[in-house]
Write the structure tokens for this entry.
Amino acid sequence: MATIEVNGLRKRYGAAVALDGMTFTVRPGHVTGFVGPNGAGKSTTLRTIIGLDRPDAGTAIIGGRRYAELAHPMRHCGALLDPHALHPARSGRNHLLWLAASQGLPARRADEVLGLTGLADAGRRAAGGYSLGMRQRLGVAAALLGDPPVLLLDEPFNGLDPAGIVWMRGLLRDLAAEGRSVLVSSHLMSELQDMAGHVVVAGHGRVIADAGVDDLIGEYASLEAAYLELTAGVGGIR
Amino acid sequence: MPLGFALLLTAGGVMLGRGGIDAVQLRLLGVRLGQAAVAAAGVQILAGEYGTGLIRATLIVVPRRWSVLVAKAGLLTAGVVPVAVVGVGVAVIGLPLSDALLRAAGESVLHLILVGLLGLGVAAAVRSSAAAMGIVLGLLYLAPMLLWMLPDPDWGRFLYRLTPATAVQALTTTVDDAGLPLGPWAALGVVAAWTVGALGMGAVLFQRRNA
């Protein structure tokens, strides 16, 4: 199965250093949590992996290839980065139909992922009227459209109601158990503790720690305690 | 939507009758209005996606950014061509057929296509509808006026020949073109140069920058 290999990514915005040699590998079979203070470079790393941001140096490889080299990229890597990246007047279903057509996928895939994400009814309404939680579900539906072996999700729990959080946790765990590489950035340590098998802790655009969740819990009692200890003194926003 | 306006404005020249010294130029005055709407279409086809955030979905779907720009340019041209042909055709309807008329009408169609692509190029460079429209409209309408305010009239006259506004005047003129600052085909060349420049810069920036 496909891995995500992030190797020596560097990126600066003027004087601010966003990425300073970010390096880690995401392996299939378990959820990998991606944590760190605001400004640690998590979102920039995810955006760089799928080619939205251009790094100054370094590479990001998905299953052996750069995202931009993939002919039907959504069949190789599904991404939920910006739940607001949609046409507000288009219905959720039409949004997915457009995406499916662009990837050479049959239209029925749109209805399948709508059902999978609980949007079967809301799918006919204009996406501009969706709540954040519904947009997150639509974003997950889009990420799953191509049945990709690699998934990237940036703060997928934002805006979900408690039932939605439980659903998302189970879904991501199942997707990883099917042998996919799943990278989830989040600030919710308790969610990750229950869900993730591995955690990458980022700070100042670098990896501070890259370890199994069980190892961290064994050493620090909880993932939250481990996070606070590891990121102590790492100011996020500079 | 902007293309609908472009059609109306361009074809509207037909209302101007056949009076005057140069009936063709009079009829083709609509091109000077219609070009704003065509430019708006060119801007909107890309900058509109930045407004809604859809561009990030588009670039996830098609990460090769060259392909996105080429597809947009093709789609835009496919939309502008029928509008320009019908608009210009209606504008000059009933005028006596001549080489000069065909030349002016044909160049008007090409001019509208180029202005649309100019809008697309500027939009790719600045990523905002409002900023791109400001630049394009400034270039099409404001630039010639500002150039006459230059302290050195020689420079003003030289630069004046290089604006697309002068070009549209030159390429629609069929009578007494000796007094024009540049010939009809050179005028189209000026517009083409602006378009190629804007598209080139837009493509490089679009390729290199963050979405």
Remarks:
- The first strand of chain A starts at residue 4 and ends at 13.
- DSSP finds eight helices and nine strands in chain A.
- Chain A has two domains: 1-76+149-238, 83-147.
